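To illustrate the input format used throughout this study, we show a single complete record. The first block contains the structure-token representation of the backbone; no residue identities are included at this stage. The design step must infer an amino acid for every position from geometry alone.
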């Protein structure tokens, strides 16, 4: 039984019937059905309305045999499970990816690669021909996984600048260096002079670049090399680093932390030590996540367009899948400082 308002053609509707209903060519319908982004919005809507009206259902098995596609892309996160599901960055990125992939037939499959065993499992899964491409997130150091996937002719895009400039792989990133420099300079402008930083991991470009931005601001202000303690972007590491910094120098009056979670951890330790934020120590984070909006006081933070990063990752990957010989350049998105009460 068809739903009200739907007129189903006799028998199984064909691409030709959908094309006639939408007033477009068979090839255009095929592009829409195959998830191509190279179709205008108006045409996309017309074809989808015709598909709905006629009740057209693609023969998926036959289509996959012809296109040699699986309609699955792999999202690989090189972190432990508690990090993936406990940090706002990953949720925002997945949301952005999902939004853009919803315009195609591509489905997203998540795999973790935080250990050697997990990386081997990811590689086997991908090499078995189960995916059309892969998005890699949170790579550390000289991770061999991207190179192995590329060697297996799997299109790959990276989240974050790879540490090796020779990788040649397309990536999407925020302007971490400029964001960190702006955050540190803001602390100078509000009167802080003994400014410390809590870094992200130094085997990740985001951690390296945010530390470089902090140091660039100090150099511009002739503030020396500053006080540096290392973290891993997580809240607990921010607490440990803040305790370390206070033990080394109790005259600190400003802190730039390379993530909101680390900044929140630092604020907790400052309270434990009787330091008022921002009266005694001003604090700036990085991410502009929900964490920043819910601290007490609310946290000044560098915003990065995580959702848009996910959108751009999906676009890059679809381009790599549909145009295997294309070499899209990197996408670097701007950051901005969001002013709140902590600084």
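Output of the design step:
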């Amino acid at each position: 039984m068809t739903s009200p308002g739907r007129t189903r053609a006799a028998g199984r509707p064909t691409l030709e019937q959908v094309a006639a209903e939408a007033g477009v060519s068979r090839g255009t319908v095929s592009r829409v059905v195959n998830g191509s982004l190279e179709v205008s919005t108006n045409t996309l809507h017309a074809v989808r309305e015709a598909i709905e009206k006629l009740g057209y259902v693609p023969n998926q098995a036959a289509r996959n045999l012809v296109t040699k596609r699986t309609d699955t892309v792999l999202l690989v996160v090189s972190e432990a499970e508690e990090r993936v599901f406990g940090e706002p960055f990953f949720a925002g990125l997945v949301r952005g990816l999902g939004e853009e992939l919803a315009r195609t037939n591509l489905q997203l499959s998540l795999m973790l690669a935080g250990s050697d065993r997990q990386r081997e499992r990811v590689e086997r899964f991908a090499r078995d021909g189960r995916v059309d491409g892969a998005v890699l997130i949170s790579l550390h150091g000289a991770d061999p996984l991207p190179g192995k996937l590329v060697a297996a002719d799997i299109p790959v895009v990276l989240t974050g600048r790879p540490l090796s400039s020779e990788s040649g792989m397309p990536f999407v990133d925020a302007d971490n260096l400029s964001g960190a420099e702006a955050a540190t300079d803001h602390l100078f402008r509000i009167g802080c002079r003994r400014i410390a930083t809590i870094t992200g991991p130094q085997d990740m470009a985001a951690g390296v670049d945010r530390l470089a931005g902090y140091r660039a601001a100090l150099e511009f202000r002739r503030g020396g090399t500053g006080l540096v303690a290392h973290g891993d972007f997580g809240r607990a590491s921010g607490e440990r680093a803040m305790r370390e910094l206070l033990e080394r120098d109790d005259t600190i009056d400003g802190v730039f932390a390379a993530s909101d979670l680390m900044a929140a951890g630092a604020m907790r330790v400052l309270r434990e030590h009787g330091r008022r934020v921002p009266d005694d120590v001003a604090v700036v984070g990085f991410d502009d996540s929900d964490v920043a909006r819910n601290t007490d006081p609310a946290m000044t933070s560098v915003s990065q367009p995580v959702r848009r990063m996910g959108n751009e990752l999906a676009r890059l990957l679809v381009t790599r899948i549909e145009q295997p010989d294309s070499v899209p350049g990197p996408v670097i998105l701007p950051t901005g400082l969001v002013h709140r009460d902590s600084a």
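Structural context for interpreting the output: The domain at 15-67 is CATH 1.10.260.40 (434 Repressor (Amino-terminal Domain)). The mean pLDDT is 87.
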